[in-house]
Description:
By secondary structure, the protein is an alpha+beta fold. The protein has one domain (2-73): SH3 type barrels (Roll), CATH 2.30.30. Helix content is 18%, strand content 42%. It contains 2 helices and 6 strands, in the order E-E-H-E-E-E-H-E. Strands 1-6-2-3-4-5 form a 6-stranded antiparallel β-sheet. Strand 3 (37-43) and strand 4 (50-54) form a beta hairpin. The longest helix is centred in the middle third of the chain and has 9 residues, at 21-29.
Amino acid sequence: xxxxxxxxxxxxxxxxxxxxxxxxxxxxxxxxxxxxxxxxxxxxxxxxxxxxxxxxxxxxxxxxxxxxxxxxxx
Length: 74
């Protein structure tokens, strides 16, 4: 498994788990549910934030938040 922050643009991954209890609810409300497919759209020029597509929505996510999402390539 990898962290969402390590995935390159253009790759789709499946969410396996969210590590941090502190942002768990926030990410769940945004659609980051285990089993959901996430596509990395692009990274900002300095790498933070990243743009992702999850559950039909385009979202921006900070790298420190993305580090807490464990994923697996599909």
